[in-house]
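agent> fetching stored inputs for the D-xylitol-5-phosphate docking request
agent> found them:
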Amino acid sequence: MTKIAPSILSADFAVLGSEIASICSADYLHFDVMDGVFVPNLSIGIPVLESVRKVTDMTLDVHLMIDRPVRYVKRFADAGADIVVFHLEADEPQNTLEAIRIVKECGKKVGLALKPKTPASALIPYLSRLDMALVMTVEPGFGGQVFMENQMEKVTAVRKMITDAGLVCDVEVDGGINRKTAPVCVKAGANVLAAGSSVFGEKDRAAAIRELRG
Ligand code: DX5
Ligand code: ZN
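agent> prediction call returned; pasting tokens
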């Protein structure tokens, strides 16, 4: 079944508790962390994650858009992340492997994210260790951007690599996901849909989530 992961980047941070309660029928809560270095924007970090952890039992899918994530993955795992996802463009392969190891040692799930220009093949050295592969369908950094349909080939390629290797691994898409683009992603092989504006931009969030689930 398709899992929906509303991105709190599009929520009203002044009333974050009730915003989270409004999307509790979803599967994961997608938590976007930006450092102003890996992406040209800043968002939220560890103190907010600790507060969110206290008010929800939802699976927290933490998407780190930060430079050299190996420095921080343990702190995000300890702060309450259930899945720690970071970008493979954000450091050297050796540090990426080390970050994966640290997250697993913390007993958490781990994922790697790919920017639009990064090919599916870049995942090969890591795939067997992953619980999630995140294919960005916009350039990371901002909510509300237009879906890049040209990433669908990559989604299909990643799904094929996982199936061929007999692995169990979520394939998540993130960016521009709405009622029109969601079925395109699912058809291509995605099973987790991160969506910000198309959920938090709607008054009836439960209905928005149902519609995305298809
Ligand atoms: C963008 C973030 C996304 C963002 C998606 O860099 O990683 O999770 O919140 O927002 P929408 O769904 O509005 O494109
Ligand atoms: Zn994200």
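agent> quick read of the result: The longest strand covers residues 28-34.
agent> awaiting further instructions
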